[in-house]
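Section: Multi-chain targets

For targets with more than one molecule, the full set of components is provided together so that the structure can be written out for the assembly as a whole rather than chain by chain. Components appear in the order listed by the source. The example entry contains two components.
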Amino acid sequence: MTLTIQSIEENQIVTLVLQGDVDTKTAPELLEVLTNLKLKEISHLKIELTAVNFMSSAGLRALIFAKQKMGHESIVSVVNANEEIKDVIIKTGLSTAVSFINN
Amino acid sequence: MKTVERIDQRSTEIINGYKVRPGKPLPFGASLIQNGINFSIYSSAGTSCTLVLFEKSQDLPLVEIPIPENYKIGDVYSLIVFDINSEEIEYGYRIDGPNNPTAGHRFNKAEILMDPYARLISGRDEWGKKPNWERPYPYRAGVPFDDFDWQEDRPLEIDPADLIIYELHVRGFTKSESSGVTHPGTYAGLVEKIPYLKQLGVNAVELMPIFEFDEFENSRIHPNTNEQLYNYWGYSTLGFFAPKAAFASTGKFGMQVDEFKQLVKSLHAAGIEVILDVVFNHTAEGNENGPTLSFKGLDNKTYYMLTPEGYYFNFSGTGNTLNCNNPVVRSLVLDCLRYWAAEYHIDGFRFDLASILGRDPWGAPLSNPPLLETLAFDPILSSCKLIAEAWDAGGLYQVGTFPAFGRWGEWNGKYRDCARKFLKGDQGQTGEMAQRVQGSPDLYKQSGRSPATSVNFITCHDGFTLSDLVSFNEKHNEANGEGNNDGNNDNLSWNCGAEGWSDNPNILKLRQKQMMNAMALLLTSRGIPMIVMGDEVGRSQHGNNNAYCLDSSISWLDWRLFDSNQILHDFTKALIHFRLKHPALRVNSFENKHTYSIDLPGCSFHGTNPWNPNWDENSKQLAWMMTSEPETINKEADVVYVAANMAHYASWYELPEAPKSYQWMLNFNTGDSNCQHLIYGCKLEQKGLLVGERSITIITASKINL
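Its structure, encoded as tokens over all components, is:
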């Protein structure tokens, strides 16, 4: 399955709208998009997951990568993550770096 | 500021299409570096080494990279492979060399071998999911990230004397549907039950093996019932550095490292330490008929104790014996424990069949085993609890004599045996019981050790549960499919009048009382008490004293017992909190200092008459009084008096005189079937009290409010 990523920038807030599955094959694409952002200058990174069914550890690691590159006060959120993705984030302790938003 | 680009992060040559350069021999294993992975593996007798890389979930290798001879320093092959994605890669090795078992060598380059330092192992990612038996290289090494966010967490370093250990099996604790957790049988499931452990009052969990093992090892079908039997307990390690994937709800995503760390962090946040039950005495490779998975093919002669003919010594009772006092193996054990202490914030280790760790490469016990000394004085492990199961299957029994180097604690098997005999009213036990409740000075005082050396227990995972201890005279291990021949025959148990299930109210009442007596004895003894999962609610294994292969309701904790045995639960919980409140029970010295503020000795023994214990063969009445000075100037001195009557008749115990301006308060009485625990205590006006048959009372002294 392919992954499409649409990036919306507004002030210091960046929203990445993902569509498809983030697995070991597609996670590098997400990582590449994140690498190309000026992460240090972003105050809030939103990862919109409404159209994502599955996110592998590689995908979740990409979010941690982003968080580590961003400023201390900055926020990484996943928006509309399904229960399974949320569950994995909580059970593995990654929720300390990533917050949840449900629209 | 400009930084110079590091040239050691560039390849020097290309082998089979992959950019590589000579690696760093240390650390062993696979380590993430910028742009690549450093691989390092030891083999002293191997003649060549090939790194085998797999794409995740592919049966056949992605590439095989022979490690050039000039990449070898000493006996260590190391190389860096660039531009590979650690998350998509699994790896193993082929080692060539002599195949001459008589000389101790079993090299076979047809086998792909797992790295002994593998920190992530895939292949058994979901518990009980039937593996593809034909798959080459079934257990695969992977490379985890070390980026878990621990925030403020660190090991708790609770004073050993204050510990109350709860031994549990990660899967068995929440696998039952009755647990009500979202992810039954996993680390995450255990996290959901932390509030339960916290309210119970225990401050350490001892996890039965969580190093990766194969539940299908020696798996078989029960000959009569057709039930699938597993290696449920897990005392058979595949990899010493990897948490069991199938205990993680996220194991199928390869995220067991994070989930286990989250468990440790959550337990710490609740004030509960994590002790791991570690199995260094043997591996999952069995004897000469067992599979070659890792050590056997890497350097058989180094890793295993071998007979002069090249067969495997079997001091573990499971086929092979790890050669722990070989310096290379010693380093592996040390590296492993350091890794768990530093990377996982583990608070302590309990060593299965630890006496093996003190044998030389030919099996003889050493007087100063270098491995035990190394662990005792290691700077990274200096705050870790080190607890030995101080015996092995080769007949070495070292309770009281385990080489401790001032650091090692012991599972006190003598406490278990004596307490069991005393509880069922055996003759001639009061003398030894007096030693046991003090923390076993007869075993530990002379060598300068303290009461907290002794991990006191009456039951553990191995043997009867507490409920079965008072319900069965004989083991009933038929469910294990070995014709009831496995498991210990000498259980020192008493069924209270009927073997197994009974509806006789008198028998049931007596059993409950005996369980309470056991808890009362355990939790008023000096040393570290250990309770096994479910004993606080009377968990039964239907008389099975060796449920190692049963992944079923026999082994799992049935949480409905919390309703049916609430009285026992509440009693145990109250006792645990009582222990935490009373420092006199946790004094960690054999000096028996006088408590001058109340003019009483720190520990004294009594019989039915105060200051006059009866050590006769027929005596079944023993009382002990433990005291300690006030912890702060405004506090009271602490006095706990315990009267145990294990005779089948009630006895009048005359009490010692209460300290001046103090009065005796009754707190627990297992003989009162209506009220075993008096929440606010009950003032004792008379000078003595009647202790019912097979009963224990616990009394404290409180200052009289003037």
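Chain B has a mean pLDDT of 95.
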